[in-house]
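Request: How about a record?
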Amino acid sequence: MQVVIEPSSSALVQWEKKGFPVFFREAFGSELQVLQFKEDAEVIAVMWVWESGKKFLNSLITPPFLPNCWLTFLNEYDKPATRHAKEKEVLKTLLAFVENGKWGYWKFDFPVEYIDFQEAIWKGTLPKTKYTYRILDLNNWEEKIDSKLRNKLKRFSDFSFEVRAFSSEEMSVFMQSSAAKGVAHKELLSAFNALNSVSTFTVIAEGGEYQAFCAIADGVCYYLVSSNAKNDNALSACGVKFCIEESIRRGCRAFDFEGSMIPEIEVFFRSFGGDLLPYFSIEGGKGIVNFIRRMVK
């Protein structure tokens, strides 16, 4: 097996049917790359990566705002053992690729269904465990919510929510609020804002006091990033409810809170009654970039 890195434009639309979110290439631009895993010249698996920096400061990582690198197999395997063997081979090939590559630092977050990282462990790379909350049953999601949250959601009719792109002024407010929380990538946020489509949507309420970005892939709606200028818990809670209802209107089967590793945010996301799911990340590198990162940690 071999892996090649290609421009995002090489991603084929038909891969969407396998669950690979090809539409992201419209927002990320030239820094977004696709890794193609090949056997006998046939692409059997793909994943998104974000390439940034030059010379000694270059990196290859999970794209900003995305919950994972979306490792996706394009072939169907009848036997679980065969699929498992392919997953291990892909991971082994990926590790060899980055170890022999030019990148000073690399980090990949994997979808929740990938749990076997023995190939990485055997090479001395220990996976890091992260968590996300995901509502798996959108038909009855309100039955599982916390009682305190239920009281906040009673104010839902007090707010007016819209699904639309933000104006330049609204976008500026959103970026200022996001920057205060450590969320950068101004150009990328602007591109997402202009991307409103079947697979992505932005929500705004109360003159911009609440704003949110969501993306849909393989039937799951991901709550990527949000902002609440007044830190009104009821408004935030009702905003999430609106996003969940919008995902249902769009035919989604699940709603993912896209990571829940910050204590203050974890409490809020947990109150929606979703299942706590672990997912894994591996990272490494070489040279001065990796040395600095290790020293900082």
Summary: The chain is about 30% helix and 30% strand. The domain at 137-273 is CATH 3.40.630.30 (Aminopeptidase).
